[in-house]
Design a protein that fits this description.
This protein is 44% helix and 19% strand. By secondary structure, it is an alpha+beta fold. It has 2 domains: 155 residues, no CATH class; 57 residues, SH3 type barrels. A hairpin with a 3-residue loop joins β5 and β6. This is SprT-like family protein.
Length: 233
């Protein structure tokens, strides 16, 4: 299922509202006890990039939800490339069921967990999705915060006349994914400024070993099959 760009932007704005009203509101005073006058700005970005960052000059946390990320999470073939889907299945969030609604609600929780991780001083260069991060994310789900975010997003989307599918999305067939790639294929992975290119030098059970080309020349990566995209030679 594909959705119009304007619908994705509207859903992004609803995700911002969910983050601010359901997740930020009860945590705001605790955050400000650590650093007074701290604020949160949520916005919808024009690309895929979805992230949290902190501006120490403004004392402002910023969460961006990428418009194209929202569009991707409406397309079953694209869902496998996002960490949120793997987290839902592997950590059994929302009962381990991947749906577009669950993906978008969980994305709000994922980025907000990064905010809490930063405030706690447990976000390090090269160690972002660490044990402390997942303790926070697990707690957001166990405490009912994630379910509240999911429910609020569903209600507000319905009021706005926006359809957010809640039908289960099946996990990708690993055998079929393996069949898509052979040694020597030119591929890309990542998004935006973090997009990288290379050639496959080994096809494994769940990943491909990719030798970087261009600005990544000389580096090697083990890339999950679902994250690879074909490049024309």
């Amino acid at each position: 299922m594909t959705i119009p760009t304007n619908n994705a932007i509207q859903l992004g704005n609803l995700m911002c509202a969910v983050t601010e009203e359901v997740l930020w509101s009860p945590a705001r005073q605790w955050v400000r006890n650590q650093l007074p006058a701290t604020t949160l700005l949520c916005r919808v970005g024009s690309g895929q990039a979805t992230y949290h960052r902190f501006d120490p000059r403004l004392k402002q946390h910023q969460i961006t939800y990428g418009k194209r990320m929202i569009m991707d999470k409406h397309q079953p073939d694209a869902v496998g490339g996002w960490l949120s889907g793997r987290e839902i299945r592997q950590r059994e969030y929302f009962g381990g069921t991947v749906t577009t609604l669950n993906l978008l609600a969980h994305t709000c929780c994922h980025e907000f967990a990064h905010l809490l991780q930063h405030v706690s001083g447990q976000r390090y260069r090269g160690s972002v999705h660490n044990q402390h991060f997942y303790r926070i994310l697990d707690e957001l789900h166990a405490s009912g915060g994630a379910e509240a975010a999911r429910r609020h997003l569903a209600i507000q989307a319905e009021k706005a006349g926006l359809s957010v599918p809640d039908d289960p999305i099946e996990a990708p067939d690993t055998r079929q994914l393996i069949a898509n790639w052979t040694i020597g294929d030119a591929v890309s992975f990542g998004a935006g400024k973090r997009e990288l290119e290379g050639r496959i030098i080994r096809v494994n059970r769940k990943t491909c070993t990719v030798e970087g080309t261009g600005r990544s020349r000389g580096l090697r990566y083990r890339v999950p099959l679902v994250l690879l995209r074909a490049l024309a030679d």
